[in-house]
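Shift notes (night). Ran 4-diphosphocytidyl-2-C-methyl-D-erythritol kinase while the centrifuge was going.
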Amino acid sequence: MTQALAPDGVRVRAPGKLNLFFEVGGVHDDGYHDVASAYQAVSLYEDVWASSSDEFTVAISGTVDVSGVPADDRNLAVRAARLVAQRIGYSGGVHLDIVKHVPVAGGMGGGSADAAAALVACDALWGAELGSAELHKLASRLGADVPFAIMGGTAIGTGRGDQLSPALAKGRFDWVLVPSNAGLSTPEVYAHLDELRARPDIAATGAPAVDPAVLQALRAGDPVALAEHTRNDLQIAALSLLPQLREVLELGEESGALAGLVSGSGPTLAFLAVDPESALELQITLSAAGYEALHVHGPVAGARVVT
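Came back to this:
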């Protein structure tokens, strides 16, 4: 293939994610960990426009601080575009315009959403028609969260998080997010967890698995039951690195949240509310206390072409 088939460009929207449950196994010799996660895609999106170009270029803007996002070949979306081109033998390039709304280095998979959007956009732009299975295969080469950003909805992730099985989630779950100005590096959080686990009271125990009670709560569409069983093994490390997050967690839980937890590797905090009205009240309370607070809901669809 040598010619792009959609020269006017393609726009794709991909969601950020929350880890409703995240259990981390012990570290392997290669530095990676087995995990068991319940992912949910939520209504905070990244938008990516792909247009024909002779080279691979990227421009980044958004409603969040994007100063730390690389605008060269280190960008995960550019790597995704190159993978598609390599896969189909396309000799041209692509220009990606990324508009970010998911907090950067916030534990919500924003970079992974960009990569997922780039895969879907380039597939459409170049008329590749690779299909879902092939796009997921390419996504898994880019990072554990990229396949889920394509899938969306609610899913269970095992292995390194990229072995996905769809999970039934009835109804709607409402969340209030509190981003942080300080980002956290995912490798740094995992490394700190390993250090903390040298203490026997929080050492990893056995192979990670999602609590069946979490799956039952999702199937029932029951946020109260979900709140009782949601947890994140990375939270202890994130709070150790950024102790100021504890104060916000306590405020949210005292102000009506069913549960509060660190999202992924953090530092974004996610508060589960019983319904949209309760989420709005919590958002107002946290905003009045001086925090940025965003009301989102899930599950939502994965990366999709927007017309």
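The radius of gyration is 19 Å. Confidence is low (pLDDT under 50) at residues 1-6.
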